[in-house]
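Deliverable D4.2, example record:
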Amino acid sequence: MALPINIAELLNGQTVEWDRLEFKSGWNPEDILHSVCAFANDINNWGGGYIIVGVEEKNGTPVLPPKGLNKNELDFVQKKLIELTHQIDPFYSPVTSPAILQGKHIFIIWVPGGETRPYKAPSTLGTKGQKRYYIRRGSKTVLANSVEENALLDLSAKIPFDDRINHQANVNDFSLHLIQSYLQKVGSDLYELSSSLSLVELATKMQIARGSAEFFKPLNVGLLLFSERPDKFFRGALIEVIVYGDEDGITFIEKKFMGPLHYQLQEALSYIKSNIIEEHVFKIPGQAEASRFYNYPYEAVEEALANAVYHKSYEHPATIEVNIRFDKIEILSFPGPLPPITNEMLKQQTIVTRNYRNRRIGDFLKEIHLTEGRSTGIPTIYKFMNQNGSPIPIFETDHDRCYFLTVLRVHPLLKRKSFTKKASIRKTNVTENVTENVTENVTENVTENRLEKIVSQIKLNHQITIDQLTEILGVTRRTIIRDIEQLKKQNSIKRIGPDKGGYWEVMP
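Output generated by the structure prediction step:
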């Protein structure tokens, strides 16, 4: 079966990190069984991994051209793998694909993180093998220790949201055109086969739908990437770009980008690049070469917005919001980073974390080069801001990790309002709903009055929702969210517990 990835890029480590790849020069059933078990357990929520048989490795990287397998070995390997995986408890079946690389036959075993983890496999083949938990520790498959076993058991009830079945949708909500377009873009062999497959068969091969024949349902990741309107199923699955025309935020242009996640990300970035990013040239006396820089380095904006799309919770109804002000770009998403990341840790230029909210979304975005990989976002943003001579970026969350804010400040040599001239005049061809030149008469007194009303409503109902406040006060959801954040900063209110099931407390 063809895989929904580019095999050449896979083996070069361009789309999947090296510690998610394992190379085997030949068929080694016991080692392969343990590695399948370890990738299926996916203790770090990285999305499983790939075992490539027929390729030698040196220091964790493949030796090319590959050693290869004899053609008659391929059927043998596939049959033996089926026998092996029946020894995993509970049963787990990986996805397999023979392939030809540089004229040699190889065999690829794709092992996505399992839905019914944790898994055990026999320590040795035969009657004496005891079933044990195996995990990936770095680039090695190892037996789990007692702490890691507890972590695996804790994961058993935590299937990531993007990898869950969506019971409100059907496979027909997928767009065949979107799937084929993606497969063609990444150079997958599955693209050539896609026209001869049913939508159910194609969704099965891509691991974007699951279930029995009579109850076969899409996964959330499939709907987010391969349905025409993901916001039908996930209200916050869109990007709003707001360009302010003055320092007070009274006049602004608002554009909404909808559709599959990768499409809305690319369209929002294209709009920002065309209308906001500007190159500036300064002639320095006594120096032959002029100084060139941008108001904002596009690469930093691209990485920051891609990170927001990757790490946002699509269970949360709030959209991703990009506020372009006279002196900075703010990218706001909900909720904040997963533990153990804190606001203090966000002040560091390098952050290492094992928890990832959307492992499957990350894999798809990385395949089309919209994200770089694990823990690379913040260092990349620092790098491009520094190269451009821009102020260091700001990353912020609150104590309860309710939001994540990235702030990119304008280059210090530019005049305060220089960026607004293009954004306030030029229009772009965006197919989504656009509201232009919206003006709100917002005064300090009106804002204070609204804040007082919010506090009064919370006193009446400590479990009141943002949607309820929006309806009662007759303002936008975005306005309520901003007011809530202002009240929290003023220590007027405090959130106790999670978004669902928690409550508000009015501070004395």
